[in-house]
Amino acid sequence: MYDIIVIGAGPAGMTAAIYARRAARSVLVLEAVSYGGQILNTPDIENYPVEAHISGFDFSTKVYEQAKGLGAEFAFEKAVEIREEDGGYTVVTPKNAHRAKAVILATGSENRKLGLEDEDRLVGKGISYCATCDGNFYRNKVVAVVGGGNTALEDALYLADLARQVYLIHRRDSFRGEETNVARLKEKGNVEFVYNANVTKLISEKRLKAIEVTDKLDGSVRTIELNGLFIAVGRVPENQNFANLIELDEAGYVRAGEDCHTSAAGIFVAGDNRAKALRQLVTATADGAMAATEAVKYINSL
After folding, report:
1. Helices marked H in the chain
2. pLDDT (tens digit, 9 = 90+) per residue, 196-233?
């Protein structure tokens, strides 16, 4: 029986583990893939206090080592179910069933897809959701980025230094991402902005060859020949496995305030899978600290 099980080893989950261990509570962190979460693939973090520039990999490794050094246990298993049993919770994975007095959900989110025919088939054959992972395969080639948030802007900036031509396609006439990134992109000579447009068709043989882009204002269709398409249209929270126990909003995010309490006593939430206005690295780590602090208070009250 652990005091706290944290589901997810992104910045929120690992920060929660640090705070729980500093409160002398036993902690198990469950992670399906690798520590770090979404931030792992960010080449340069510029907006986190203390260090003006640090890679997502270095940041994640430092937090992981800190949590491990404090005695947090990590198991790389995917949590598929939470059961309320005997005054506590059982977290079920394909390998084990782990028991805890409290649970912190820090599952983050997964890539949102465009929903186009052949999209899944073409992943790794011209379609990618991670520019820093796959960008080097498109050196001196033609690529497009779809999206209007910071991830899309950062992907376009990264690819502009590798590719011959970058198309940045957005369904609106302005971007949701930071203006500093937009300004940097406008200085690039190999970036073309395609506003008020949606990617409506993928053209391929064995690999992606081109895309059709439909103008939302006049309905005109443009074919863009390219080698790679990077999709950055947001993320989907990974909460559905736990919807039987906790309340979610219409978009699938966990309903919880700044105290990170869910609708179930003893279950807390931290990070990008929580319903909130701002999803940034600094808010994820803040959630982790708050969720752990509240989980400790809950355990002390039992």
Report:
1. 11-22, 56-69, 131-134, 150-160, 179-186, 281-301
2. 999 999 999 999 999 999 999 999 999 999 999 999 99
